[in-house]
Amino acid sequence: MSRFIEVPARMLPPEALNALLETFVTRQGYDTTDTGTGMDGWVVELKQQLERHELIIAHDLELEMTEVMTLAQWRAFGRDLADDEEEGDY
Hints:
With 90 residues, this protein is of the alpha+beta class. The chain is 51% helix and 17% strand. The chain is built from three helices and three strands. The protein has helices spanning 14-28, 38-51, 71-87; strands at residues 4-6, 55-60, 65-70. Strands 1-2-3 form a three-stranded antiparallel beta sheet. Helix 1 (14-28) crosses helix 2 (38-51). The radius of gyration is 14 Å and the shape is globular.
């Protein structure tokens, strides 16, 4: 069984999805004044990116953590994890 699963955005309650997206905005250092509608504007934009499959929601079954990631972050994370497993760091 894989340690990570992709979670479809539609499976999350709206409040949980919004909280995840707000955390992503904060973690990425987005300027919430850019949209003219603050954090809400970014949340709307990120929901659209999820629909276009530019972002994913990944859940770590071992750590019981859920994160929003860009596809580039997801791919880099997968490579880093594979390297750790090869080295026995996992």
